[in-house]
Specification:
With 152 residues, the chain is mainly beta. The chain has helices at residues 63-66, 113-117, 145-148; strands at 8-16, 19-24, 28-33, 47-53, 56-62, 79-83, 90-94, 96-104, 108-109, 128-133, 139-143. It is built from 3 helices and 11 strands. The protein is globular, with a radius of gyration of 16 Å. It starts with 7 loop residues before the first strand and ends with a helix.
């Protein structure tokens, strides 16, 4: 199995609005259902607040707000993905988590130049590591967590 690790990526796939997104499974500590958060004064607009997760205070970020997407009422499918860039746990609120997926690195392409040059609304191309092509014809946006979760 380790021999193929350089030829494939294992991703946690989740949804936001109508898009499919993925982060490397090695960056994910756990996935949990939505829970209460406590607002933090003067925090960035996309920070939902903090929550107590297994005795550890964890910052929770709303990815819809972070990416400038329309707000959506949270439901039973809403999840918090706990990631640990720089060994600091951060929760990301997503619409749903769909699967853990193995994808060949041959199926991952760099972000198209047109997207990189675009100044339109939506997700900043700096947050995107690449685009994965799935068997059903859908595209999967691979996120660069360090850039997504760094305050700007």
């Amino acid at each position: 199995m380790d021999e193929t690790s350089s030829d494939e990526s294992i991703l946690v796939v989740f949804t936001l609005a109508d898009g499919l997104y993925g982060v490397n499974v090695s960056q994910v500590r756990e996935i949990t259902s939505m829970r209460e958060t406590t607002p933090v004064p003067n925090s960035p607009y996309y920070v939902d607040g903090v929550t107590n997760l297994r005795g550890q205070v964890t910052t929770v970020t709303d990815l819809r707000r972070r990416f400038g997407l329309d707000e959506k009422e949270r439901d039973d499918n809403t999840r918090i993905i706990i990631v640990e860039p720089d060994n600091i746990p951060i929760g990301m609120v997503v619409d749903s988590v769909s699967e853990v997926l193995r994808i060949s690195t041959k199926e991952i392409e760099p972000v198209p130049d047109l997207v990189v040059e675009s100044d339109g609304g939506g997700i900043d191309s700096d947050y995107v590591k690449g685009v994965g092509k799935l068997n059903d014809g859908k595209l999967l946006i691979l996120l660069d967590l360090e850039k997504v979760l760094t305050a700007s």
